[in-house]
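As the next step, I needed to go through one protein, both as residues and as discrete backbone shape codes, included below for the reader:
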Amino acid sequence: MPDSLPADSVGIVTPQTYHFDEPIDLACGQTLPSYDLVVETYGQLNADASNAVLICHALSGHHHAAGYHSKEDRKPGWWDSCIGPGKPIDTNRFFVVALNNLGGCHGSTGPNSLNPATGKQYGPDFPVVTVSDWVKSQALLADRLGIDTWAAVVGGSLGGMQALQWSLDYPDRLKHAVVIASTPRLTAQNIAFNEVARQSITTDREFHGGRYYDHNVVPRRGLMLARMVGHITYLSDASMGEKFGRELRNQAYTFGYDAEFQVESYLRYQGERFSETFDANTYLLMTRALDYFDPAYDHGGDLSKALAEASCEFLVVSFSTDWRFAPERSEELVNAMIGARRKVSYAEIDAPWGHDAFLIPTPRYTDVFHAYMDRIAREVGA
């Protein structure tokens, strides 16, 4: 962390754990008797609780969206570029709530938590959760925080799916949904990428059917490979070419199979680092939630019929080189919103960074995001 905090930082923040003793029924038919959600908040809730914004995280995200946990932190939260004083999600105007989703591995109840029925970690016995389950738990969190209606629910990628689901499951509890670099459902290719990642994990000899905790090991190699596959899909060919090209680590071929190219070294580093911080069972759970997401499923495949249940306004943002969740998927969503006579604003941002572009504060993206959130702030008098 720099010697002094940036003026637009939310500063040093402390996560809070909210415990829920009430059982929560899940879409898979199982029930969690109790659970914890780890939360960070930034800014102040106004007198009528009308300025609250919920941040929904993507696959490998968590509650630490902005600021620093200590003076020793080298990096701020994962969306610090967009959350803070004067930023698009302005904490001088909004009360911002970010959480680690149910099933996560950063403090909220998930596969690495203790199962009260056995006294051991849940492991593979943790129920499969869906985007709707996350939204249900987030609504219960909102009740606990005294928030009846969100000024906006905001998310990128898997987080954007949650924002969209909020508009359908609790249409009277949000004014705006901001859906960034997302999709109304995965393509077959996306499901295929997720399956390769899951197979990488489940075939690791240290996986032990998901009970690796009992063996005091981690399926590190499987997690590493899963992250490498995922990371490739988050970047564009152009961004990888610009960053690495065909650059060799040692300026000459070694005629072996070690990491000779810089891109190989980069992917191995990303995979190794991820395998040290993320839980394998959670990765399986998160990717399956991605696969299952399809709001049109219960409406005969008609997305416009599904969106007829929404009453909020929408901002949809896509990125030109995002081939994981391509602009065509956002356009499909926007067209369905128009068909359902919903109010929607749409922007396709020309950016070279692929799917990861939603995390990078490019000027046009920031301008669009800032303008929309400024309108929301004015609506609630913030």
